[in-house]
């Protein structure tokens, strides 16, 4: 039986996981979760019940990055996995730095920008400007190469783009008129890809009694 992935379609952490699985052609059983009504099977695992979570070979992987590294290890496509996560330690450190900045510095501003009404201590544009510091960094980098680590896509790109997509979606009109040409081109290369269509396939909420749904 393939591994089980608890996922939520629009969650950027789950999107980065599904994108990696799709690119590495690693098949899992997908369990689409409604966050307001999490299934007992997920809650009964105990501890955190965030998505994505993977259950594979009797092990639990409760973080998106754990799942991505599980996929890197288990894919049959060693060439693609080497491209996404090169063996070179310096390259790995740079990829981790992009992801770390995204997850720990940018994401909190993205949340405040998206849910500015829950953070009335500042106006929404204040949070957007804070988030834009990361957009500017990305733009600077993408001026010089197609992807964050050079001419080839790596985990840095896959792990970051779903969050930039979410940032853009908060106020699409603003994003469209903003001056980030290289960033927009990079983002479009993901959201317009066939892989992304697969990643964003809609599945009904998983129920214990249903047939297995495989992804990709
Ligand atoms: N650090 C986690 C974060 C996952 C996360 O926060 N997921 C959100 C959905 S986007 C979630 O499950 N929220 C519901 C909850 O916190 O109970 C990861 O990388 O997987």
UniProtKB/TrEMBL annotation:
GO terms for molecular function: transferase activity. Coiled coil: none annotated. Residues 1-79 form the GST N-terminal domain. InterPro entries: Glutathione-S-Trfase_C-like, Glutathione-S-Trfase_C_sf, Glutathione_S-Trfase, Glutathione_S-Trfase_N, GST_C, GST_Omega/HSP26, Thioredoxin-like_sf. The keyword Nucleus does not apply. The keyword Zinc does not apply. Keywords: Transferase. It holds the Pfam family GST_C. Signal peptide: none annotated. GO terms for cellular component: cytoplasm. PANTHER family: GLUTATHIONE S-TRANSFERASE OMEGA (PTHR43968:SF6), PTHR43968. This is Glutathione S-transferase. It comes from Marinomonas fungiae.
């Amino acid at each position: 039986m393939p591994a089980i992935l608890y996922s939520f379609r629009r969650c950027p952490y789950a999107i980065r996981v599904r994108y990696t699985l799709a690119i590495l052609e690693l098949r899992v059983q997908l369990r689409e979760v409604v966050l307001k009504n999490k299934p007992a099977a997920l809650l009964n695992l105990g501890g955190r019940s965030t998505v994505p979570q993977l259950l594979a070979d009797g092990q639990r992987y409760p973080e998106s990055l754990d799942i991505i590294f599980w996929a890197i290890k288990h894919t049959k496509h060693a060439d693609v996995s080497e491209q996404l996560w090169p063996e070179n330690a310096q390259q790995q450190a740079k990829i981790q730095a992009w992801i770390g900045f995204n997850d720990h510095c940018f994401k909190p501003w993205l949340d405040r920008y998206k849910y500015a009404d829950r953070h009335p201590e500042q106006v929404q544009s204040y949070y957007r400007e804070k988030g834009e510091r990361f957009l500017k960094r990305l733009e600077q980098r993408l001026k010089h190469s197609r992807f964050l680590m050079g001419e080839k896509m790596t985990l840095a790109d896959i792990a970051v783009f779903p969050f930039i997509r979410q940032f853009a979606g908060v106020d699409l009109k603003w994003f469209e008129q903003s001056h980030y040409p290289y960033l927009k081109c990079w983002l479009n290369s993901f959201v317009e890809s066939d892989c992304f269509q697969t990643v964003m396939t809609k599945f009904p909420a998983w129920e214990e009694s249903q047939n297995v749904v495989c992804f990709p």
